[in-house]
Amino acid sequence: MDPTARALISFLTTEGAAEHAHRGGRGLLEHLQGTYEIVARWNQPPQLQHAALIHSVYGTDLYRHPLLPVSRRAEVAAIAGEAAERLAYLFCATPREFLLAGTYRWVAGAAPALREPVAATDPVATRAELDALVLLHMANLAEQSRSADGSPGRWLVRLRELGEQLIDSEAVVLPLFLAGLAAFSEPDELLTLRAYRAGVSGAEDPAAPTSGLALSAATCPVVAEPCLWLAHVSHQRGELAEARNWARLGRRRLLALGTAWDRRLSFEQWLALSELLGREEERGSTAARGEIATDPRTLWAAVTAGEPASGPVVSGDDAAARGQSRTPAANTDRARFHRYVDSFADAGGEAVRTVYPDLASQPWFDPAMFPLAGYLESNYDAVREEILALEPARFHRESERIRRSGEWDVVFLYERGRRHDAVCAACPVTTRGIESHLSMRTVAGLSYVSRMRPGTHIQPHHGPTNLRLRCHLGITVPDGDCAIRVDDETRAWREGRCLVFDDHFEHEAWNRTDQDRLVLIVDLWHPGLSPTEVGLLEGLHAYAYAYARQLNRYWSANADAAAASARPPTRG
Predict the structure, then answer these.
(1) What is the pTM for the complete model shown?
(2) Using CB atoms within 10 A as the burial measure, which of 43, 89, 346, 406 is most buried?
(3) C-alpha–C-alpha distance, residues 61 and 320, integer Å
(4) With contact defined as beta carbons under 8 Å apart, do 361 and 467 qualify?
């Protein structure tokens, strides 16, 4: 996410977009962010991505609940850029009946009667701008189309029809997945849905026929979820080669479509499943768990249990599936990642502490920029109840070599790539948030409960890397002098609210009260990292984690052999 997008999200949050009602009981901000992510995955230019993030803030002819009056256009343009703001305004002002009928494309000089007055200085919308509005409507449709329970809805045919208007556009490059829908009809879409529902209902039994899932995958060549269910069923049967093929196909489709079709899981969760189900080894742990309920959310819980949760890496095949060979942005991201890896050669024994290059830094961040912070605050009561119910014996002394006075205890959910299953099972709401958002669950990150006893002072220190930010959710915070300093600013925790900061800056914390301070700490990827870089880093960390475990087993085996050789022989 680029700085403009982050600034827009901060602005929208301040204006109350998260609480501003939208369709389906969701907040407007969630819809705007989701639309932005789809437009970005469709590889559209930055101004169109930024327009997606504000596309309905002035309301529309169907969504008559503006977040902002049009009198504030200049204020929005100062953040988003004039081109992006103008597209957002035109999205509000242009009646969609005129726009989506494509009249402007075949009637020379056709212009809509705008719903909102245009300033005298505003030029008439160009054909290129109207084409961009159609694409925004496509992303808007793709983001919010779902059944009431999140299961797939009917929207793919309509998406293709809108895309057909733009086939000869000189201003908009259509996502390539639309070519796969060229012959896709309404009966095909209905058959896809019915076959998928029938297939999922039988996916619980490895011996059950999978014809429904296969029919769904074959009828619609762009949806990923039937393929991923088939990968799961193949794993249950021990058919690993077939599972890998289905997972690979599902992954390509998911990256090309740019959004989940079955919204009971997020795009990121389906993408993670495609990686886990496409692994070489047999998933015996999944097969051994017994029944897998016929719901994607339970499938997610079963497949990801016990995993170190290294995220998916974007491969060359995946880039091609997105309709791009390698974008200039992706090339730049990869070049920066390679510079980071190259720096290991000069870091000596401190290679793991090497600073990631050209990553902008600041000590404090607005929690509203991070969906996980919003999740934790929204679910605070449940999170607090889970954490307070943890058995005291689970806590142990914090072992990092950080100078401190007093007592500082912790209990881990994720510890540098290792999932603590028992703790995660005891904290399902907390764990669901950590595993459903872009938290750092690799060897570079931690997720844990931190308890500072009365009179404790954690001395000034620096975190080992600038790759991460730390999110603190206040669970129990005593009144009095209990706070944290990052760089030259001190802030106090608040129960039910998050603090987000860069722990690579010098920081210290203290509890000069007579009661315990308890916070949940979750590491997040630095927002200056692109999705490409996060994927590459997660892959690097997953390799380091697996290699370290293998090396430790090797050393242990040699140590045991040496010890056995040193023992005197027994007499017969």
Answers:
(1) 0.54
(2) 89
(3) 37
(4) no
